[in-house]
Amino acid sequence: KRIEAGGTMVNHWDLFLAPYKQAVEELKVKLRGIRAQFEMIEAHSPIEFVTGRVKPIASILDKAQKKNIPLDRLEEEMQDIAGLRIMCQFVDDIKTVVELLRQRNDFTIVEERDYITQKKESGYRSYHIVIRYPVQTIRGEKQILAEIQIRTLAMNFWATIEHSLNYKYSGRFPEDIKARLQRAAEAAYRLDEEMSKIRFEIQEAQAAFSRKQEAKGEG
Ligand code: 0O2
């Protein structure tokens, strides 16, 4: 549907999603800035990398139908139209990132969901923070909701694979696939545990490697 905005006909979805797109772009820069600051002082960064996306229209419509959200209530009730993902090397880094996000004053935290101490039935683990983020527009400030998912590389690997299988099977996994995904979730959990135990050694090796690269002028 096209609607009138400032004398021009604009696609309704383009207009609705514009502040979400802006928020995702801004938040990617801001969150990547955290990593850059740790690198600057040559300290271990609790953030490995950051991704962001605006939920595709088809997924918004799907989720609205599944969760019975009327389309005129999307702004208030769909928390992940703007989505950011922060990947960490170690489980302990997640706590550090959460603390850093709690201290910021460029957004407010609306809700936190800890699927790490309390994993989902599927085996999914991740820490979710829902924020209210002010976007500056030519018509003044617009507050939008965004979801930040914080997870380790192992949690991300599992979630990415499970998500694509979920899409393939529309959530109705054959029993053998379901069992394998459960075992894979346990393996990812054990991998995180093992990495945490040798964290100190890994970090020392990484620091030595970047010192060497720097000396070679490749840093
Ligand atoms: P997409 O495609 O990732 O954008 P609900 O959707 O009811 O489970 P709710 O209330 O929306 O939950 O919030 P929740 O559970 O905090 O966050 C939902 C998002 O978390 C999902 O978004 C996924 O990104 C991720 N997620 C939650 N559970 C799982 C899971 O079992 N497996 C995987 N791979 N990801 C999960 P969407 O909307 O599903 O879509």
Structural notes for this entry:
This protein is of the alpha+beta class and 219 residues long. It has one domain: Beta Polymerase, domain 2. It has seven helices and seven strands. The strands form two sheets. The protein has a five-stranded mixed sheet. Strands 1-2 form a two-stranded antiparallel sheet. Strand 1 (2-5) and strand 2 form a beta hairpin. Helix 5 runs antiparallel to helix 6 (175-197). It starts with a strand and ends with a helix. The structure holds ligand 0O2. Ligand 0O2 is lined by residues 55, 59, 63, 80, 83, 113, 120, 122, 124, 128, 159, 162-163. Ligand 0O2 binds next to helix 2 and helix 5.
- Fraction of helical residues: 40-55%
With strands numbered from the N-terminus, the spatial order across the biggest sheet is 3-4-7-6-5
Bound molecules: ligand 0O2
Q: Over the alpha carbons, how many angstroms does the gyration radius reach?
A: 20 Å
Which key terms come to mind for this protein?
Beta Polymerase, domain 2; globular; 7 strands; five-stranded mixed beta sheet; binds ligand 0O2; alpha+beta; two-stranded antiparallel sheet
Topology:
Blueprint: E1 2-5, E2 8-11, H1 12-40, E3 49-54, H2 57-66, H3 74-77, E4 82-88, H4 91-103, E5 108-114, E6 127-137, E7 140-152, H5 153-169, H6 175-197, H7 199-215
Parallel strand pairs: 4-7
Antiparallel strand pairs: 1-2, 3-4, 5-6, 6-7
The protein binds ligand 0O2.
Ligand 0O2 is lined by residues 55, 59, 63, 80, 83, 113, 120, 122, 124, 128, 159, 162-163.
